[in-house]
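Order emerges. For instance:

***
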Amino acid sequence: MADVVNIIVAQATENVKENATNTTGKPPSTPEGMAMAYGSIVIMALLPIFFGSYRSVNYHKENKPEKMTKKDAAIFPIMASCALVGLYVVFKLFSKEYINLLLTGYFFFLGVLALTHLLSPVVSKLVPAAIPNIPFHITFKQGEGDSAQYLINYRFSSYDVVSLAACSLVGAWYLVQKHWIANNLFGLAFAVNAVELLHLNNVITGCILLCGLFFYDIFWVFGTDVMVTVAKSFEAPIKLVFPQDLLQNGFAANNFAMLGLGDIVIPGIFIALLLRFDHSLKRQTKTYFHAACLAYFLGLMATIFVMHVFKHAQPALLYLVPACVGTPLLLALVKGDLTALFKYEDSPDEKVEEKKKDEKATKPETKKVK
């Protein structure tokens, strides 16, 4: 969860950073270059949500993921704000070169692991059959018997090692050049994994989270200079970028359009919840998932439109949250699924088991009379 907080803080700074970089005297982009850049950004934003949502369905069937509760959702904007202010203080007190050096190393390891998790199934199919697929299992256990706790319990194979080596080359490319393509590969991996692995408990929790970050985004973008200061100093693959001058300068282009990962991950985990809700209805169509994806697309287009009309960076969640929350709620009201939507829980069986355990614990013991 701490990694997601870092992503939210950093992505919000990128919204402001875009406005700051546009005032540094870079030549204006052509309409064709801008259309290509923002079209690519929109497509890259939709891909993690789509694939991450379907991966979350499979992950939920095979595992018992940790879910964000209402309390977690309520304090999340506060945690993100504290992290933002902390970064502001650190950048004020210490040299940004050394801090960014540490951040680069931190995100290098995270990026390699995230990309490996995402591409391992693909790389495994490409490995020649002559290379044997040897399984490995690393465990680190504390205690014995039923009270034992596995601190490390990780299974992998030799094919995963090959995937890790391939992804490490991307990591080395990022370390040496910080090329925008390597940045995007890491960013897409972060986004897909976050949508897949981070699960909301129910729709109410999702509404609390999105509404809280809605006000968070507005306040820190428009209300203070904290975001601006952090934005000018923070360097990490926590955004998707695409050059607006690609047609003129090729891969050496440097006038970027960008979108923070938080603007993908936060709506994405809510949309993934709606896909799991669609599966629970056992209908032929994925109505709520498709409607939410369309709403996200329209919200993102509205963000880009307003940004260019007013020539000022916009908090994307200002437009994405009403679209992604309002659309499925209105659709559920029209279709008569509003009650089912609010009652939906990812794992109702777990609540039943917990209730049985509580009843068993409170049930008085009966003694047999001989």
About this structure: Confidence is low (pLDDT under 50) at residues 15-25, 349-356, 365-370. The chain has 14 helices and six strands.
